[in-house]
Amino acid sequence: MTTQEQYIARLKEMVVEKFGRDITSAEDCAQLSESIRETSALNTDPRHLELMFLAKRQRIAPRPSVLSALAHYVGYGSWSDFCSSREVHPAVDVDIIPVKRRWGVIILTITAIAIVIGAILFLLLGSTPADDAYNTEALERIYSAVDERWCAIATEECNDLRSARDIDDTEVESIIAESLATLDANIANDIATRAAARNITIDDATLAKHTSQIVERCTNIYRCTLK
Fold it and tell me: What CA–CA distance (Å, rounded) separates 174 from 63?
């Protein structure tokens, strides 16, 4: 078993601890999804949680947005923050992800770490008070970072779906539809959270405009998988 599998197992244990009971049914997953939304304002499809907590065999690695939402739910900023925390001790003797998915998880983790490092550097370089011009530049950097992050997530998920041998076209379409259903809200929340961390206010129209542009690029990536 890889270290990433151990961390996922530990994350599930901590989620159960915070949730207050074992997650053994679709109803539990729906209530967990609502609890995540109330805690972090992140939308997580209950079906994704069912695949992670109820499925006897994990056919593809849990999607990055689900891992990050669950990590945030138990008190960490992201999935990479959870894995790098000295407070987290990975579980042992748990087999979650098939061997063919392990390289995908490793690549995803490296990408997540790079994003976190970039965000830290941005905070260090952009922490001084700014006028309108600075705010505009800072927002452009936020849009670029969010665009890069979610396009990378979409690409990784599509690569996983293309390499999976035991799911048919109908399942692929269903999984992609689920991703698209929460994409708009998750991207908007990502932009707003990053802006708030820098004390920058974004009006609803501007937020909707840039969210729509990023969603469109991600959607085009998913569409390539459906062809």
Answer: 14
pLDDT confidence of residue 209: 93
Q: Which of 80, 99, 118 is the C-terminal boundary of a domain?
A: 99
Supply φ then ψ for residue 140, to 5 degrees. -60, -40
How far is residue 152's CA from residue 108's CA, in Å, rounded to a whole number? 9
Q: Do residues 26 and 63 both lie within one domain? A: yes
Residue 179 CA: distances (Å) to CA of 19, 66, 88, 153, 166: 24, 10, 28, 10, 19
Instruction: Say whether pLDDT at 161 is over 50.
Output: yes
Q: Is the pTM of this model over 0.85?
A: no
Domain range for 178 is 126-227
In this predicted model, what pLDDT tens digit does every residue of 204-226 receive, in sequence order? 999 999 999 999 999 999 888 77
Per-residue pLDDT, averaged over 135-147, amounts to 90
**Tally of domains within the chain:** 2
**C-alpha separations of 161 from 21, 58, 117 in Å:** 32, 13, 28
Residues 221 and 151 sit within 8 Å (Cβ to Cβ): yes
**Residues recorded for the chain:** 227
178, 134 Cβ separation under 8 angstroms: no
